[in-house]
């Protein structure tokens, strides 16, 4: 039934979908405040785990808690794994450790780890005590790796075959051990006697080849071998570049210890993109479920930095109090130069940060791109200098002010283009994330240069 | 050999990789200017198609052209498919139609379409005339769909089996027709007698099941059925949400006509993220290979809009010329209020645009999020009002100006939070892309309100 509903979705675009349908959510809210467990189950049971998670995220923390107490059976391992971390944290507080242990046991080790890591130490111990030794060990060793590394993301369940087997051997073995196989896998890893991966075969290739063919005859050497310490962003980049669907993770001795899949990498790509975009806008992290207090905490630090740079820019303006007192038009016009510089700098910056993230901006082509940004800034400077000088002339009937603002515009837009590329490149060279902090640096440059060029020139020319 | 090189990469992080190694690129550049075809082949042949494409993108258009004339054999179908559109356009101008036809014939129909669409009408006709009828038909019917739709992205090669077959039937059939199978596939689609998809089976499940099991016994109903007209962003969202690796595309009669794979969706996700991030920064599109002229053209339009809004803000300032003439401190301080508002607004905006892209911000929870943004803005307003008032008091020794700037800060940061969420939501409701133009609207609001609140209050209180 649920499947038919989703089919229809893509046909009747714009029609109600469970997770975004206010009426559905309202009905569920009513059922929760009526404590009507049967109706809740009736509403949620037909949905896919991902949809249940999405609907739950629309509820308040109080409603989520009631739901967890009233109908814990809704919170299967899959549903827990699909929820965003904030919601999961709330819900898991209300679920019994034995329920959580059973839910986690359903999951592959990577998803199990993701769920367990949200628990505080006491509850984590209680839950882990109730799951099997093998599962516990897998989760514990994943948790030993840093967040955002391949080791944390990998699953321990994979399919490997020795390099002397034929396809027939491999298929017979899989049929016999069907219960131990991971839920889904896309490649068979071929290993040598030291359990080191020497090849991989897409499962579709296994199906189309003859039974008596040796695995070594159709395998390809692994495109990448991932170390558990490797940063997830690096791995996601390689998955994208080489169109991988899975990749082996090996320990320091080169032995196969886990597998990464494209499904996980899709989430990593989204997360890393989100991080970059928020970082550029000066937000540390953001979750729609965040409270006001959390939002304030994630945004105030960059506003504080901006306050300092804004005061710095004001200090520059204060240097020219004499000019401003005599010619009030300068005060009226000065924000234009700074604002245009800020925008042009942000444009260069976004292009550069994006190119760095996609590994397109490298040492081999950075000089060419730096020149292009400078040239683009200068040409735009000339264009907008002509426009603003004309406007100024018409407005204030003063060709000297018009000339001054035009020259300041060219200077500021050239420097905006240059700082928009040099600042992120400098951050990379310093080993920092180019998306974080670069906006603030760029707008500081464009504000300071904008005010300095305009008011400084005005002082020289007009006074 | 190339594979060992890539293995080493992930072990010796930071070591040279062909596509980002300036020395390698320099050596290739030298070989190109020496017209040394053998050395060029020796350098490039061991590389993966994706790496060759990345290296080529580091060269100037002139060098790319020489390479295409000198060693056309380097430009296999895979290499062409991996290149970015700008580079591909340059290179293909130098390749003979018969070479292009042979290269395209190697590719699955989705990649072939991507390559062909870069050709102008005359050359496209010349190339299509040289490829087989089946391939031509596939490419032509893909091109008939709009850019950025499922129809354009889908491949015509997929594997389907009738719903009365057993697993044994399906496997035997695949072995017999191994040559006609797509390069890679992750799901077997089960179709009814009308060729409508009724189920799908991950290929790993086929391997582990017994031969005499019926397909209908282990298939799952298709999670989604995609129409060719569906926007690629919508499809990518569903792939991510349901962790899909492939999905069937059906025509208006519900018949299976193509397949989308997760490898393509990874690229779509990256592209859509890039679009959003650049749009927020006011860049229409960007490619590292863009010329200065193209960069100017993609950035000038939003700078022009910004010029108008900056002049509007100046117009607001001009209303208070009298106050500015008498109290020059106002001119010094006024950019602080506007700048803080701009930053706070951009923060709200980035969070909102991101949440809309991830379908987390919906009609069911938008009221809660609007309140949160208003509250966050107001609380930050109070915090930074206290700070800036203190700074102003110390600087100008004037408690009235200190009070005025504090109140203006609270007003502007509250409104910044509100406009950061209401403007993108309004754009969505109007059917527009919330990332495009919203930055400009938000900073216009924060500039105008910032200057108006500060200078207006100052006029009332101080004069």
From TrEMBL, chains A, B:
Keywords: CBS domain, Cell membrane, Magnesium, Membrane, Metal-binding, Transmembrane, Transmembrane helix, Transport. InterPro entries: CBS_dom (IPR000644), CBS_dom_sf (IPR046342), Mg_transptr_MgtE_intracell_dom (IPR006668), MgtE_N_sf (IPR038076), MgtE_transporter (IPR006669), SLC41_membr_dom (IPR006667), SLC41_membr_dom_sf (IPR036739). One of its GO terms (molecular function) is magnesium ion transmembrane transporter activity. It is a multi-pass membrane protein. It is found in: Cell membrane; Membrane. Its main location: membrane. GO terms for cellular component: plasma membrane. CDD domains: CBS_pair_Mg_transporter. The chain crosses the membrane at residues 302-320, 326-353, 374-395, 401-428, 440-462. The keyword DNA-binding does not apply. Gene3D superfamilies: CBS-domain (3.10.580.10), MgtE N-terminal domain-like (1.25.60.10), SLC41 divalent cation transporters, integral membrane domain (1.10.357.20). Residues 219-275 form the CBS domain. PANTHER family: MAGNESIUM TRANSPORTER MGTE. Acts as a magnesium transporter. Belongs to the SLC41A transporter family. Homodimer. This is Magnesium transporter MgtE. It comes from Maricaulis salignorans. The lineage of its organism: Bacteria, Pseudomonadati, Pseudomonadota, Alphaproteobacteria, Maricaulales.
